[in-house]
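Dear colleague,

Thank you for sharing your sequence with our group. We've completed the structure prediction you requested, and as agreed, I am returning the results in plain text so they can be pasted directly into your records. Please verify that the sequence below matches your submission; if there's any discrepancy, let me know and we will rerun it promptly.
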Amino acid sequence: MDVPVSQRDRAGLEFLGSLQGYTGGVLQPAAAERYAELVPEPPRGLPERRRSVDEALADHGPWLFDRLLTRYVAEEIYVRSIPAAEHARAAIEEWLDVPSDAPGSLTLDPDLDPPAYHAAGFHLTTGGWDGHDLMGVVISDLGYRYVLMPGGVGAVRAGENLMDQRTQVIREAPRRDYRRILEPGCGNGRFAVAVSNEFPDARYVGLELSRTQLEYARARCVHEGRSWELIQAAAEDTRLPDASVDLVAIFTLFHETPPKATEAILAEMFRVLEPGGDLVIGDIAPVERNGAFRSAVLDWETENRGEPFMRSYLQLDMPSLVERAGFTDVKAYGLGKGDYPWIVRAHKEEQ
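Please find the predicted structure tokens below.
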């Protein structure tokens, strides 16, 4: 949605985007260079890397200011974007209010009991994903547009195009003739757009726990002339029939779930995938594919930037978990700079 934003609100958000770009584009590279000078042979384990960076850069100004300002921006995104959404409430509500008989569907579950990890405070959102009734717009059209796209976030560096990365991931699907594609953790539908663009004849099904994100995805679907099936459900308990989809496509979900949930989701994806179907996952590269400094930056987000499961995710052997779920022909590789997006691709054998 093109939110009508006042000059004051826009200035505040653009300031955060510029500040984030400065930390990621100037301060952080300076800190990385200094660390490389001080520690030419860094340790391999994640805890040791974290300690090594903290000790080596304990009095390094660019590193200290980078961490301070990164945390400040993460908190301020919602401090500034929620009021901006309130100021544009009438226009936002009109955009969200789409005809119930429009193509596609949205199925909400008023009795849904979300898993405990859903209340973990992702991304320092005020009150969580559903902490505000306009949170879909707050995240997508204010925070994402004005701060994260120009400034970068997490594994995404300043200047990289987050939408292009989604397209890169879905293009790793090995076939072109999929009939029904499932995305668990579909959020507000940004990856759904890339999926539908690449596979316009396939039926898209998106699962998501957050009501506000689903409502945004539904409005996006209608306004863009799509026909998505959107369902409020946990990815580890979809209630979809066995063997009911032929491609499962997942983008940046698993660094948001604890390891046990990750295993349960993979098992559920294997169940709903038909024999001969495929799995494509795009996420952050594991610790062994990141340098010591980069590992410490990502690990820092566990306790400081609303990524409570980042540390455990970085140390997961995702290919092994995928194989344990029953998949075969498992491949893992990076696409871009710093191996992001990191692809794990697999197949469900014909019976």
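Summary note from our side: The radius of gyration is 20 Å.

Kind regards,
the structure core
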